[in-house]
């Protein structure tokens, strides 16, 4: 096997740095100013996918990252290309998804100069900084490569969030004279300190009615977390981002109901509440919890340990090593006899939560059961900011594994579902993926059907049509506002799909939609399945 050509420009060296950090797929759109990055990609084993809009590139990278746990990478041009990706970056920031966005910037000395330079932004780096964890501008070729490598190293030890790297055009096109880019050694994740760990073990070992809450920060800790919960006989409640971290068919599972009224009594009556990898944010827990017992929190970001709920014991650690340490300590120590009450407490809370979910979103339950009963057990479901997703899939579709339900919870953006499903499918083409979303959300990114068709993805896209923005329509009615701008003109959805190189079918009911979705998995192109739901 011949070795890849050594980098010759900063752009080619940056692509080599991506390779050194294990990147195998990037999403991007070439433009006048980012061509040196594409010189590198043309020589690279990295696969490049070109969505039809930079927002779609960001969402696709997000779907890839959530499905795999590996960072997603986006390449844009300067100015409008980067700004088009901002909604996707805000989504990833809100939900702690690792995305790296590479863009050119104004040449050195011309930033913020108002020269009328092509794609000029008053302060591009500062604009990006509003929606990412860090936005850095690199003044030398070496700084650009170092910024890429530092980003991957920091993701191993801190909360994963999007990072933007801006490379001035003159730097991007400069000669690279430092030879091959070396492979990068990953940093070990933080582990719990002995003192706080001993305190946590003492509290949990003596607890008689503990409860566990898990979020998106625990996605890689499913195995030890399950063992901890079983050892404690503790009911487990998850956030939407943490859905599937704990098998939702397990008798100790309450489900993704952390903000539900039906789970509040369980959470607040626990004598010890163990919170693993969740900020307990307002998007899911609008009314702050007021537990009567002690609180133990585990988080990779130290600033999260008292956010929204003050902790009594703080374990600054990645979730997996923390859960492994708790498991070892609990297994070796003495625990209270809890009399097997955990399963009955979980069952009672689960029934209360499901009753509440049916009251608010029962109309979306049938499609969940129809699809779940027919699709393969390992199907990845990608939703959107649609009622069928957050009032339907989140409460009613039970998942046995993490990374099986992808939903933009914090930013609650529209247009996520289709491109994110495309990214999840590309992450593992052998695994079934289905997009399930409303008509209003779908119409924010229908052009990505063409991208998915070009890639020959066997992807079912189930569009449940409630004639526009149903949630906002109801919000207006609840406030005695005459509905306006919510009942939207709609295309012939199956015909639209066919015009973009996909299959398009109409389903008479939920059972028919599920049958069509199953058949779509075996096609070499996406299939839009349209289901009329009514307003």
Automatic annotation (TrEMBL):
Residues 197-326 form the Thiamine pyrophosphate enzyme central domain. Keywords: Lyase, Thiamine pyrophosphate. Residues 9-124 form the Thiamine pyrophosphate enzyme N-terminal TPP-binding domain. SUPFAM superfamilies: DHS-like NAD/FAD-binding domain, Thiamin diphosphate-binding fold (THDP-binding). Residues 393-529 form the Thiamine pyrophosphate enzyme TPP-binding domain. Its cofactor is thiamine diphosphate. GO terms for molecular function: 5-guanidino-2-oxopentanoate decarboxylase activity; acetolactate synthase activity; flavin adenine dinucleotide binding; magnesium ion binding; thiamine pyrophosphate binding. The keyword Lyase applies. Its EC number is 4.1.1.75. One of its GO terms (cellular component) is acetolactate synthase complex. GO terms for biological process: isoleucine biosynthetic process; L-valine biosynthetic process. NCBIfam families: PRK07524.1 (NF005712). Belongs to the TPP enzyme family. This is 5-guanidino-2-oxopentanoate decarboxylase.
């Amino acid at each position: 096997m011949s070795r890849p050509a050594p980098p010759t420009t900063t752009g080619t060296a940056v692509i080599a740095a991506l390779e050194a950090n294990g990147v195998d797929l990037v999403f991007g759109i070439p433009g006048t100013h980012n061509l040196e990055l594409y010189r590198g990609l043309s020589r690279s084993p990295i696969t490049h996918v070109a969505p039809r809009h930079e927002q779609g590139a960001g969402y696709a990278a997000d779907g890839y990252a959530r499905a795999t746990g590996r960072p997603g990478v986006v390449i844009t041009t300067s100015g409008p290309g980067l700004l088009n990706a901002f909604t996707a970056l805000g989504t990833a920031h809100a939900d702690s998804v690792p995305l790296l966005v590479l863009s050119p910037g104004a040449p050195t000395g011309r930033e913020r100069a108002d020269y009328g330079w092509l794609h000029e932004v008053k302060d591009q780096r500062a604009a990006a900084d509003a929606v990412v964890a860090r936005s850095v501008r690199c003044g030398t070729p070496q700084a650009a490569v170092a910024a890429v490598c530092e980003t991957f190293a920091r993701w191993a030890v801190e909360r994963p969030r999007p990072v933007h790297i801006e490379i001035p055009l003159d730097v991007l096109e400069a000669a690279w004279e430092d030879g091959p880019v070396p492979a990068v050694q990953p940093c070990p994740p933080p582990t719990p300190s002995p003192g706080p760990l001993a305190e946590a073990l003492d509290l949990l070992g003596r607890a008689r009615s503990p409860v566990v809450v898990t979020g998106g920060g625990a996605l890689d800790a499913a195995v030890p977390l399950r063992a901890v919960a079983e050892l404690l006989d503790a009911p487990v409640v998850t956030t939407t981002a943490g859905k599937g971290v704990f098998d939702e068919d397990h008798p100790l599972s309450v489900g993704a109901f952390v903000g539900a009224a039906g789970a509040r009594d369980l959470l607040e009556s626990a004598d010890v509440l163990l919170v693993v990898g969740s900020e307990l944010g307002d998007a899911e827990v609008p009314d702050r919890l007021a537990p009567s017992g002690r609180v133990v929190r585990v988080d990779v970001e130290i600033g999260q340990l008292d956010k929204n709920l003050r902790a009594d014991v703080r374990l600054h650690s990645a979730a997996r090593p923390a859960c492994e340490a708790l498991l070892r300590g609990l297994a070796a120590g003495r625990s209270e006899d809890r009399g097997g009450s955990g399963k009955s407490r979980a069952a009672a809370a689960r029934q209360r939560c499901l009753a509440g979910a049916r009251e608010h979103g029962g109309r979306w339950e049938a499609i969940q059961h129809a699809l779940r009963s027919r699709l393969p057990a390992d199907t990845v479901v990608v939703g959107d900011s649609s009622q069928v997703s957050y009032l339907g899939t989140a409460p009613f579709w039970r998942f046995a594994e993490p990374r099986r339900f992808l939903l933009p919870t914090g930013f609650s953006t529209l247009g996520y579902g289709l491109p994110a499903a495309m990214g999840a499918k590309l992450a593992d083409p052998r695994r079934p993926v289905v997009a399930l979303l409303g008509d209003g959300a779908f119409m924010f990114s229908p052009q990505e059907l063409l991208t998915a068709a070009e890639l020959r993805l066997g992807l079912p896209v189930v569009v449940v049509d409630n004639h526009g923005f149903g949630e906002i329509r109801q919000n207006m009615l609840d406030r005695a506002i005459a509905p306006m701008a919510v009942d939207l003109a709609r295309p012939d959805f199956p015909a639209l799909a066919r015009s973009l190189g996909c299959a398009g079918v109409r389903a008479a009911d939920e059972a028919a939609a599920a049958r069509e979705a199953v058949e779509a998995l075996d096609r070499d192109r996406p299939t839009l399945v349209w289901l009329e739901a009514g307003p």
